[in-house]
Amino acid sequence: MSYPPAPWHLKGFSLQTLHLLDIERVRPLIPSELNIVSVLPGKTVGGVYIASYGAGSTMPYNELIVVSGLLHWQGKVGAWISHIYVDHPDSVVGGREIWGLPKQLAQFTWNVGKMPSVQVNHSGQTLCTLSSSWQLPGWPQPVSGPVFSLQHTQLLQFNGQGTLQLQLAGVDLTIDSTSPLAELNLGRPWLGFYSNSLDLIVNPPIPMHK
């Protein structure tokens, strides 16, 4: 086994966006047995999260997560990750074999400063670019994020929890029309956030029984 066992401890910084997504558009990306939560008529919540994990982490790597919907099933609520890219091969294998996440390798180019930005490329193609033009002062926020995933035919749920130094930010998202992410039609972010300090634990998954 080339990857460490769960839980994984992740420390670093991130840029994030929240979006309202068309339920009809994201439905094919989500297992049919999971119910999509409608927050407005025909709309669910999704978003883009790009983070860089460094010193103090289980392993150092960069990560792009695309959440394509908020779901509920058997009284439980969680997000669905339809696209996920990292730049460490052990993270790819661990993500697939522990949590059932469809991780792929990608390249991350960060411009870290007062106005951070990042571009993510996969197989010579630009997946997306996130850039922040402003941030408001923030403070540490406890977070807990339940996620559904699928490993072969087994539905799983796991939880990420910890603390984010969360700052409301102006975040622009650019997605090329040929990017695999274009199918979500994310559009302009509803909200944007920057966290210059995150400290998260990603717990082992729990099988969900039908």
From TrEMBL:
GO terms for molecular function: lyase activity. InterPro entries: Acetoacetate_decarboxylase, ADC_dom_sf, NDX1-like. Gene3D superfamilies: Acetoacetate decarboxylase-like. Pfam families: ADC (PF06314). Coiled coil: none annotated. It comes from the Bacteria. This is Acetoacetate decarboxylase.
